Description:
The protein is α/β, with parallel strands linked by helices. The chain has helices at residues 3-15, 20-26, 30-48, 56-67, 69-78, 92-102, 127-136, 153-165, 193-209, 225-237, 254-267, 273-279, 288-295, 317-331, 341-350, 356-361, 366-380, 386-397, 415-418, 445-456, 500-511, and strands at 82-84, 108-110, 147-148, 176-177, 186-190, 218-222, 242-244, 410-414, 423-428, 459-468, 470-471, 474-475, 488-489. It folds into 4 domains: 3-53, no CATH class; 77-136, no CATH class; 186-249 and 409-511, 3-Layer(aba) Sandwich (Rossmann fold); 252-397, PCRA, domain 4, CATH 1.10.486.10. The protein contains 21 helices and 13 strands. The chain has a 7-stranded parallel sheet with strand order 7-8-6-9-10-5-13. Strands 1-2 form a two-stranded parallel ribbon. Strands 3-4 form a two-stranded parallel sheet.
Amino acid sequence: MTLDEIVGAISSLKAAGLSPEAAAAKALDPHRRALAWCYGVYQKQLKAEGSVDFDDLILQPLLLLSGNLETRSYYQSRYTNLIVDEFQDTSRTQYGIVHLLAEHHCNLTVIGDPNQSVYEFGGAMGAEGFELFRKDFPEATAVYLPHNYRSTPEVVALAETFLTNAKMSNGNGRQVAVRSSGPPVFLYRASSEYQEAQWIAEEIVRAQHAGYIAYDDCAVLARTNAQIQFIEKHLVKSRIPCWIMGEGTFFNHQEVQVIRALMRLSLDFLGDSLALKEALDAFRWIPAELRNRLMGDDPELTSEHLTNSEGLKVLKPDACAVVRQVTERLHTLNDHQGDTPEAFITFVMTDELFGFNKVLKSHTDSDIRFERVRELVRMARQFATLGEFLDDLDTMSGDDPLSLFSAKQVSLSTVHAFKGLERKLIFFAGFEDGFFPLASTTANPQEDLRLAYVGFTRARDALCVSFAQTRGGCRRLSSGWLRGLPMEMRQRPNWPNEVQRCADRELQTQLN
Length: 512
């Protein structure tokens, strides 16, 4: 097992409420015994440091409440009414705390949907949690909510048909949409992942120009981060403001920020101290202590201190030599301030003094980072000077406070990360075998079904589902789960209130 796998396994043991001793007692094979041993060593180290990890924040209170009657009685009287939302995502340890707090007064309300349980890999009990609740609180009253106030009848019909086809329980009958009718659910078949991403970009622009959505009314969902990052590149290329939930925008990525900073320094070396600190990411060989001082808020280390002999006196001789080497390299940027943006990026990536390509290769996700740089190069080809390109980047990234891009952006997210959220228009990309269900021997098909259901039900007004016939050069098949669903396969959805010729004309202007 890798270190990450061991850490994940220990987290699962804690989510199940098992101590190292309990895990060892349940271990029936050498693999589990070794894992229980690692768990014990890990806990001893935490205790020696007086620390707890995230999972301990749940497990330790559970052990305290279950083992100390006085403490349990105090908190039972302190919290006399309990409400648990998203109950299907509750772990066994979390439920253990709730049960202990409520066992005396039984004033407990839980709210959830077993069909939206998508975190079993993280210890969530899902439907089992509801069964356990009924067993522990047999007098509880169940209230079913058959009315759907979020989505249009078309989206609700798709979700309900999906549940029926998948033979998943839908509680106490089918959901009924309260809202008025909307557009049909669209299904798009793309020849490749490139065509799929381009189609999504075009339809977002068309829907926005038609007045059907603002950019922040829209979200693009997919199974994996890699799919989302691929689509992000095409949206950026089409000048659609977007951000990946949990990561930020294309322009927030380290490699993009460093290249922008180096461009700024080539034009204004002394006047841009922020760019100077950002550019230091290109020099990974700087000793860690000095690097932290240079990139921190040390008042003794401004850009002026780094560029004159008086300022260097605050440093030790060996650190002073390193800083001189850095500043000499940065000064060479002045010789390239007249380069085209494309030529400048090529220089900082390949020049021996910078060798930023070596920095990117040192990362485990280097392929994605290089792809972002290539996308930046494609954007740079449209501009003749560094100043023009920087102005455009500042506008697109929202650095310009007057930019419309800073206010409204399309959300890009995995389905897992988007759970609990909603948008007017949802694009659900990559609905193929291998993603739904996931091509993994450890995948749970039932959880994959629930994940797809969650994705469908994020849409309020309109839902577009797409799949690619080839991805990564390999032939793909649409997911068999699409069969029998009430969807319309179209090349172009008709967005309500759309002025077609105007929208198409503005679309061509923006994409070109």
